[in-house]
Write a structure and sequence with these properties.
This protein is mainly α. 51% of the residues lie in helices and 2% in strands. Bound molecules: glutathione (GSH).
């Protein structure tokens, strides 16, 4: 979603091909044998197959909403947050959502571990409207969908908990950016 939202915001035209992950097309695997999406194939044959790299590629060409900020420092500040989002937070979220696959700890322990990251985001969002300041940036786009998906759901067999911290207005901004263009 983050790669797609950066491509949308940048206004770069692409041909979108949806794939079924359990039946990956040979053309996709030929372009990127690691077998994860997104995969961006450029007209000259160059392949970019990490969502963060696709974001940077798109926004470095056209960044009308200034997601990249004034200089490289903005990107450097975003990176630790995005990395934590993609590694320990996603792992804790997944384990919280599917506790039957991870019986080594109680579901509440996965939840508490994940909440530490949400609390970090919330603390920053109490200071500034977005993670790196006054404007939606390259840090917000990757982190807000994961935070939104951390809202507990009984669909996954999880008991209903009070909503974990995370500014709903901030999550809504991401959805506005992405869905209403
Ligand atoms: N670090 C990669 C992670 C990509 C990733 O894991 N994508 C998932 C879908 S969200 C995937 O393609 N999984 C492969 C599969 O389910 O077979 C990125 O951000 O581009």
């Amino acid at each position: 979603m983050r790669a797609r939202s950066a491509l949308i915001v940048s206004g770069i035209e692409i041909e979108l091909r949806e794939v079924v992950l359990r039946d990956k097309p040979a053309e996709m695997l030929a372009a990127s044998p690691k077998g994860t999406v997104p995969v961006l194939v450029l007209p000259d044959g160059q392949v970019i197959d990490e969502s963060w790299d696709i974001m940077l590629w798109a926004l470095r060409q056209h960044d009308p909403q200034n997601w990249l900020g004034q200089d490289e420092c903005h990107i450097a500040s975003a990176l630790p947050l995005v990395t934590e989002n993609d590694t320990s937070f996603k792992q804790n979220l997944d384990r919280y959502k599917y506790p039957e696959r991870h019986p080594e700890q109680a579901q509440s322990a996965w939840r508490s571990a994940g909440e530490q990251f949400l609390q970090k985001l919330e603390t920053q969002l109490n200071v500034t409207p977005f993670l790196l300041g006054e404007h939606f940036s390259i840090a917000d786009a990757p982190c807000s969908p994961s935070s939104a998906s951390s809202q507990p759901s009984t669909a996954h067999g999880s008991p209903a908990h009070p909503t974990p911290p995370c500014a709903p207005g901030w999550i809504a901004t991401h959805h506005r950016n992405y869905f209403h263009r």
